[in-house]
Every structure is written in C-alpha cells, then in structure tokens.
Write a structure and sequence with these properties.
Residues 131-140 have a biased composition (Polar residues). The chain is mostly beta strands. It has a 5-stranded mixed beta sheet with strand order 5-13-12-9-8. Strands 1, 2, 3 and 4 form a 4-stranded antiparallel beta sheet that branches. A 4-stranded antiparallel beta sheet has the order 6-11-10-7, with no helix packed on it. It is built from 2 helices and 13 strands; from the N terminus they run ββαβββββββαββββ.
C-alpha cells in the first residue's frame, strides 16, 4: 500500500488509519514508513558524510550531492488476532465447601508456525503433573506450540475477593492437527467462604500468534445451616433464654 502527495503545513498533524483484518490466527508484521520531502523539491542543508551519526543516516534519504533529500519515520506494526469471545463457563459451589472442576477450552484455528506438519499423525497429547503458565504442545516432530495463560479479573476489588479462593492448573493438552484445534484442560479449584457471584477471564495466547478469552463465572450459594437451636418455653408471657458459643474460622 502506497500513498503519496499529502501536503502538510508547519506543525500540522498527520493521522494514518491502520486496518487489521486477520485471516488466520498467526502474528502479522508490517512497517509504516513516512517519507517527508520539501514541496519545492529542494534539499535540506544537512549533509550526510562518513562521520555522520549512523542512527541519523538511517532516517534520511540522500541526494547525489550528499545533502538530505527526505526524512524517514519508520513504525513497525505487530498484529495479534483475537478469537471471538467464547461462552461463559459457570463454576458453582456451596459456600464453605470446596469444588474441583475440569474445564475444557478449545483453541480453534491454531497455526503450527513455520515448521511443516506431518501428514501421518492427526493428534498429539501431552500430560503434565507440574503447573506451568507456558505449556507446550507437540506432534512428535520439531513443530512445537507454546501457550501463555493467565486468569484476569475485571477489577482489583474482584481480584481481592477471588484470588485466594480460586486455583487453576493445566492438567492435559491435545492438538488435533487436521482441524487445527488445541484442547487445554484445566483443573479449577473453588473454595468460597461466603455467598458471592464474580467473574474472571482465562486469557490464552499462542506464541505463534492468536489470543483466546474464556469468561468464567464463579457462583457461591448459601451454605448449609450450622445447627438448629431449640428454645423451650417456660410459660406464657415468660422469657426463655438459651446460650451457645460462636467460633471464628479466621482466628
């Protein structure tokens, strides 16, 4: 794409719109180059010599007489496609209980990168016992996919409420080469202390390109009653008293 003939007045701003429409889940790279020349065609008085600053020389175009013909601004652009947001996964647990739930996430459209994939195998599976935020998925050849994942919260307040109550560990990874779908299976632990409803998002990024977001909804329902207090009446219009002890679980 090339656009020329734009006139700029002194101190005028130039806005360059960038449109990103990725066709595949991979990293896209481009460079925006702005070349500024004088409208009258004259050169700038700055002359490029062998003793000039090399960094400055890379940002100018030089005429035959060694003077500066144009000035360059170079802006590299890196584009990471993001998959459409998936349906929410609901994790429901009664307050003061502990829940372990397997959550299966499908990463659709994963690109294998520059290494060609073999035709013989159609899937690959790797089990792990160690938690990691950079899981690798391989098909047995030199083609390896690495993923980064984290649990993000909508606000610091929600983080303070959920972070100590939620645990997440990747337990299994599978790569279907034909459909280009990677399946990540997480073991999510939820141990709420009181009724609540909060949301978080699992964000998964492939090092070869692509970003996936999976909303999680954590719901803690009312806990079971601790006990039943029976108060026996001593007569009409007479006060009955019963005593019981309360123990704090946080001290």
């Amino acid at each position: 794409f090339h656009l020329a003939g734009i006139r700029l007045a002194p101190k005028e701003k130039l806005e360059i719109p960038v449109l990103f429409m990725p066709a595949e889940m991979k990293i896209y790279k481009a460079v925006v180059v702005i070349h500024v020349m004088r409208e009258n065609g004259e050169n700038w008085p700055y002359k490029v010599t062998s003793e000039s600053n090399p960094d400055s020389n890379r940002n100018v175009t030089v005429a035959e007489n060694g003077k500066t013909q144009g000035i360059l601004w170079i802006y590299p652009i890196s584009g990471t496609p993001e998959a459409p947001q998936q349906k929410s996964v609901v994790i429901r647990c009664q307050a003061r209980q502990r829940l372990e739930q397997r959550v299966e996430l499908l990463l659709i459209g994963v690109m294998p990168g520059s290494t060609a994939l073999p035709d013989a195998d159609t899937s690959a599976m790797v089990d792990t016992d160690e938690p990691s935020n950079t899981p690798e998925v391989t098909d047995g050849s030199s083609a390896t996919l690495e993923f980064l994942y984290e649990l993000q919260y909508q606000s610091d307040e929600i983080r303070s409420q959920l972070e100590s109550l939620v645990g997440m560990q990747l337990v299994e990874k599978e790569w279907d080469i034909e459909s280009r779908i990677v399946t990540l299976i997480f073991n999510v632990v939820f141990a709420p202390s009181k009724p609540m409803r909060n949301e978080a998002t699992i964000v998964v990024q492939c090092t070869a390109g692509g970003l996936w977001k999976f909303p999680l909804v954590f719901i803690a329902t009312e806990p079971e009653v601790d006990d039943v207090i029976n108060i026996e009446a001593v007569g009409l219009n007479k006060e009955s008293i019963v005593g019981f002890k309360l123990t704090s679980q946080t001290r």
